Amino acid sequence: MRALPAPLLVITDRHQARQSIEAIAEAVGQGGGRWLMLRDKDMEPSERRGLAVRLAEAARRYGMHLSVSRDVELAAECGASLHLQSAAAVGAARRRLGPTPWIGVSAHSLSEVAAAAAAGADYVTLSPIFLTVSKPGYGPALGVAAIATAARAGIPIVALGGITAGTAGGCLDAGAAGIAVIGEVMRSEDPGHTVRALLGACKAATAA
Predict the structure, then answer these.
(1) Containing domain of residue 196, as a range?
(2) Which pTM does this prediction carry?
(3) Tally of structural domains, the chain
(4) What is the pLDDT of residues 156-182, one digit of tens each?
C-alpha cells in the first residue's frame, strides 16, 4: 500500500463555504494542509473546470496534492488525482490516468471497501463515521469500530463524516490511515486555524 498524500484530506463544498473555495484553498495551504479535493459535482462543467484550474495553481504554490471528484478527463487535464463513487470505474480510470495519480473510491459499507480494494483503488473514504450535516443521506453513522474492520481489507481507510479535531485521534487509533473533512473546514470562520488543529490532532495520535 502507498502512503496517503497527507493525513488530512479537505473536500470542497461551496454550498457550505463561508468564503470562496479559492480563498479556503489558500487558507488550507497556509495552515499546512497538503491534500485538497474538488467536489462540487453540481457545478456547470466549464465553471467547474475553471475552478479546478485555479485550485491546481494554488496546489502548486503550496505543494498540495489535488484530487478531483468523478471527472477523469478534468483530472487528466489538471494533472490531478481522481476520486470515484464506485469501484467499478477504477479500471477505466487507471487506464486513462496511468499508475501515478491516486484513485480513491467512496465507501459507505464494508462490502464497498472490499470492492474498492479488489478493483485496485489506492484508498477509500469510509463514511459517515459520525452523524454529519454535510452528507445527511448516508446514515446511520458507522462508528469508529467500523474503521478497524474495514482496515483489514488491505486498503488505506480515510475516515469521513463528522470528523473534528476532537474525534480525529480516535479514528486514527482505530486504524484509519487519514481523515477527511468537508463542513468542518468549509463552515469555519478561520479555515487555516481549523486545518492546523486537525493536523495537530493527527500528529498527536501518530506520536502516541
Answers:
(1) 8-207
(2) 0.96
(3) 1
(4) 999 999 999 999 999 999 999 999 999
